[in-house]
Write a structure and sequence with these properties.
Elements (H helix, E strand, L loop, with lengths): L2 H37 L4 H16 L2 H16 L8 H30 L2 H9 L4 H31 L11 H12 L3 H32 L2
Length: 221
């Protein structure tokens, strides 16, 4: 099989990897902020619940969490969602990734919020802003500037973690590479997949660097 044909087949899997990457970010970034609020809640019970959740999601492998999400409905409730086939498989992948990454993002947000001087809250109140308005207009932009490097590291890790979707049978780029390597008895598909992952990561890293510089310039004004 020619290299171009391999790239075409890997490209099909790459679209799935891109979908996992994009959907995970779309849902986990705002969910992480909500979990952060729960973690920082004044109610000790609520705070403890979210603290335990974050601890579990960060303390156990993502691959294991994907197994729990995919097979859990059957083993716990005898619900055979696997009958839905690829639809449930893809949904389970997204759900597992979102729940996992939201926990990491929540801790990054929390660190960023704690780093903002209390004087910023007081200044916002003096300007007549309410709590919600002051948070989204004054505090959150500062949090994003502080937290962006750590968020960027997680985003780059997510690019590589999309390959873990193969664990429950989801066909993405890494799975395609394995299939091609097996059928062609060659390491070329792995080398091509590695190149695509590298380019993907390079594009993401470059975009994050530009965002970080832009936020840095806006913070100096």
């Amino acid at each position: 099989m020619s290299v171009f044909k391999m790239l075409e087949l890997l490209g099909e899997g790459c679209l799935t990897s891109l979908a996992i990457f994009a959907l995970t970010l779309i849902f986990s970034l705002p969910l992480g902020l909500l979990i952060c609020f729960g973690r920082m809640a004044k109610n000790k019970i609520v705070s403890a619940i979210f603290r335990v959740y974050i601890s579990i999601m960060r303390g156990t492998p993502l691959m294991l969490q994907l197994f729990v999400v995919y097979y859990g409905p059957y083993y716990l409730f005898r619900i055979r969602l696997s009958r839905l086939g690829d639809h449930w498989m893809f949904l389970a992948v997204i759900l597992g990734f979102v729940l996992n990454y939201a926990a990491y993002f929540a801790e990054i947000y929390r660190t960023g919020i704690l780093s903002v001087p209390k004087g910023q809250y007081e200044a916002a109140q003096v300007l007549g802003m309410g709590r919600r308005q002051s948070f989204f207009l004054v505090i959150l932009p500062q949090v994003m500037r502080t937290a962006l490097p750590a968020l960027g590291n997680e985003v780059i890790t997510l690019v590589k973690d999309t390959s873990l979707a193969f664990a429950i049978g989801q066909v993405e780029m890494f799975t395609k590479a394995k299939q091609l390597a097996s059928s062609e008895v060659s390491l070329v598909p792995y080398a091509l997949a590695a190149l695509i992952y590298y380019i993907f990561n390079f594009v993401v890293a470059t975009a994050l660097e530009k965002i970080e510089k832009r936020l840095g310039r806006s913070g100096k004004r």
